[in-house]
Design goal:
30% of the residues lie in helices and 18% in strands. The protein is α/β, with parallel strands linked by helices and 202 residues long. The model has no long low-confidence stretch (mean pLDDT 91).
């Protein structure tokens, strides 16, 4: 059995989502985001990571490079977040159907993809890139991670948004062949309560 550590990237430099949602934002991590990535690195020190994977978005790459602690990082565009097409960079308030895109697995924004598309793409990319032996660290995005986890947990994809994935949060999955099982969900190493207790995976 091996382990897969699925992370959400650390907090990015400040942005107001009401002004525009940018899943392809070029912003990097904020100082807190870098601290979250460093805490995730320390939490995962016991993991025997044969591969470190991340999306091609700067905040994910920066997180992965910190967590990797000198290991090579494989950048995979298929691990990026929901592709919004013509809505990219625009305010959700301008689109009455925006909430439906996030909750109805079949609804797509113009030129973009649905939750079903996202889950299929993310799963195929992740499962195809996992090492034959050894553990893996994967840095993705909030909704992409949640859609993937909904499939792992057997939950309706429409409920994926209920699966919490905080910036810098770590989810641990046990892997046996192509089967994944949840071990930990959305562990936040910088949580003040966690700092008083366990500070690493073991």
């Amino acid at each position: 059995m091996s382990l897969v550590a699925l992370l959400r990237h650390g907090e990015e430099d400040a942005a107001d989502w009401r002004q525009g949602v940018e899943t392809r934002s070029v912003r990097g991590l904020s100082p807190r985001g870098r601290a979250q990535a460093e805490a995730a690195r320390d939490f995962l020190t016991s993991l025997d990571a044969a591969r470190v994977l991340c999306s091609d978005v700067p905040r994910a790459i920066e997180t992965a490079e910190i967590v990797a602690a000198g290991r090579p990082v494989d950048v995979l565009p298929g691990l990026c977040g929901l592709r919004l097409g013509e809505w990219e960079g625009t305010s959700p308030l301008a689109h009455p159907d925006f909430v439906r895109v996030l909750t109805d697995p079949t609804v797509r924004p113009p030129g973009g993809e649905s939750l079903e598309d996202l889950e299929d793409r993310f799963r195929a990319t992740l499962m195809g890139a996992l090492p034959d032996t050894g553990d893996a660290i994967v840095v993705g995005h909030r909704l992409a991670n949640a859609a993937f986890l909904a499939g792992v947990l057997g939950l309706p994809l429409a409920d994926a948004g209920l699966i919490q994935q905080d910036p810098g949060g770590i989810t641990i999955l046990a892997r046996a062949g192509d089967r994944l099982s949840l071990q930990m969900l959305n562990v936040r190493p910088l949580d003040p309560l966690r700092l008083e207790g366990a500070t690493s995976l073991v």
